[in-house]
Design brief:
With 210 residues, this protein is an alpha/beta fold. It has helices at 3-11, 15-27, 32-51, 57-78, 102-113, 127-137, 153-164, 182-188, 197-209; strands at residues 88-94, 116-120, 141-145, 172-176, 192-193. The structure holds cobalamin.
Length: 210
């Protein structure tokens, strides 16, 4: 039983083995963040194999589902840490046209563990939905995930609408997702880019202090 075995189980989409191994690894003291890190690399490889037509959509789906199941097993371990003063309110979603949610869900867990209050607006969220939900929730931060180059423009669209409506200063906007970069964040006028869920909590805490 090793992290490598778990990676193999997720790669081959074996949910039951994935859940079992993940449980054994955390019970044995492996850091859940180390597991997520390793599995994110596996998903990157899956994506590359998909591009090279070495695997097809059903395989990518099975790996994605196996990873989601592992994240469910890790959830109580990520949430450990006891109480604390809420640091801020975040509306979090995946942008319009984009159904990728694994990364967003991990970010949500990590932010909750870091004492942020989260309103998860799911996937395929319209720019106006982000803004409406942020207003209703009294959010400090809007977090938008995009996993595809084709949906990244909706992160910009949301910021542009905020500007047009004179609400840009009401919220800090943070973006993320595999194809996004710090350069893209600067180009579209986001306040922050976080490369992974592990750094997001710290970076967001810093952002609210500014
Ligand atoms: C799993 C997967 C799927 C699953 C999604 C399952 C689910 N429930 O989410 C399924 C099979 C459904 C799927 C579908 C498709 N997919 Co897909 N998918 C992937 C894959 C392999 C992994 C994504 C993933 O979960 N990674 C693991 C997580 C943990 O990493 P992450 O999302 O990057 O998140 C981390 C950070 O980025 C960051 N983060 C993420 N979001 C945010 C947000 C904020 C605010 C912050 C601060 C941080 C942050 O923190 C996270 C944790 O550390 C990627 C490959 C890749 N390299 O990304 C392709 C990939 C994204 N998919 C791709 C494609 C093409 C598709 C489809 C169009 C395929 C098809 N022909 O139908 C559809 C599109 C569906 C749609 N409309 O969205 C392409 C996109 C190419 C492009 N245009 O850019 C990729 C890159 C694969 C490839 N190389 O071709 N996919």
């Amino acid at each position: 039983m090793s992290l490598q075995d778990l990676c193999k189980a997720v790669e081959t989409g074996d949910q039951d083995r994935g859940k079992d191994l993940a449980q054994k690894l955390v019970d044995g003291g492996t850091n859940p963040l180390e597991i997520i890190d390793a599995l994110t690399k596996v998903m990157d490889e899956i994506g590359e194999k998909f591009t090279r037509l070495e695997i097809f959509l059903p395989e990518m789906m099975m790996s994605g589902e196996a990873m989601s199941k592992v994240v469910e097993i890790l959830t109580p371990h990520l949430k450990k840490g006891g109480g604390g003063e809420p640091k801020g309110k975040v509306v979090l979603g995946t942008v319009k046209g984009d159904l990728h949610e694994i990364g967003k869900n991990i970010v949500k867990l990590m932010l909750q563990a870091g004492f942020f209050e989260i309103k998860d607006i799911g996937v395929d969220a319209d720019p106006m939905t982000f803004i409406k939900e942020a207003q209703e929730f009294g959010a400090d931060i809007i977090g938008a995930s995009s996993l595809m180059t084709t949906t990244m423009p909706h992160q910009k669209e949301m910021i542009d609408i905020l500007k047009d409506q004179g609400k840009r200063d009401k919220y800090k906007v943070v973006i993320g997702g595999a194809p996004t970069t710090v350069e893209w964040a600067e180009e579209i006028g986001a306040d922050l880019y976080a490369p992974d869920a592990g750094s997001a909590t710290q970076l967001l805490s810093g952002l609210l202090k500014k």
